[in-house]
Write a structure and sequence with these properties.
mainly alpha; F1FO ATP Synthase; 4 helices; flat; transmembrane helix; transport
Length: 145
């Protein structure tokens, strides 16, 4: 259960945000009426998104494009970043649970330590796979001819 101080701070933030939101937004004009799209109509936002991205896709497919290397760098950043975050969180949770188990039953410390080290090695291997994917995207990209 959350501490009373935490609950009080959360409630205070929610009240402050509600107060600020009530004073920040301007109400609509009284005579303003909204226009409804006919049923089954394709949304205008979707059409404009398709129209805006079509030239970009065509340009990315052309020879000598800079989009593929640039997006490969972004993908490499996501690959290593997500792999490191996921592995770090998993290793932290596993280590914490192992310490809890050792503190409850010190006689099984050797068994838990061995299982922990093995699981940490497997988690770290997933981070290394993310690093390999990032290096392939940066230096040996199969999409660049």
């Amino acid at each position: 259960m959350a501490a009373p101080r935490s609950m009080a701070l959360t409630a205070a933030v929610l009240v402050a945000c509600t107060f600020c939101a009530a004073r920040t937004f301007v109400p609509a004009v009284a005579g303003f009426r909204t226009v409804q799209a006919p049923a089954g109509a394709f949304p205008a936002a979707a059409i404009s998104a398709v129209v805006m991205t079509t030239p970009t896709i065509a340009f990315a497919a052309s020879e000598g494009s800079q989009w593929i290397p640039a997006l490969s760098a972004v993908g490499a950043g996501f690959a290593i970043g997500l792999a490191a975050i996921g592995s770090g969180v998993g290793q932290g949770i596993a280590s914490g649970r192992c310490i809890d188990g050792i503190s409850r039953q010190p006689e099984v410390a050797d068994d838990l330590r061995g299982v922990l080290l093995l699981s940490l090695a497997f988690m770290e291997s997933l981070t290394i796979y993310g690093l390999v994917i990032a290096l392939v995207l940066l230096f040996a990209n199969p999409l660049i001819k």
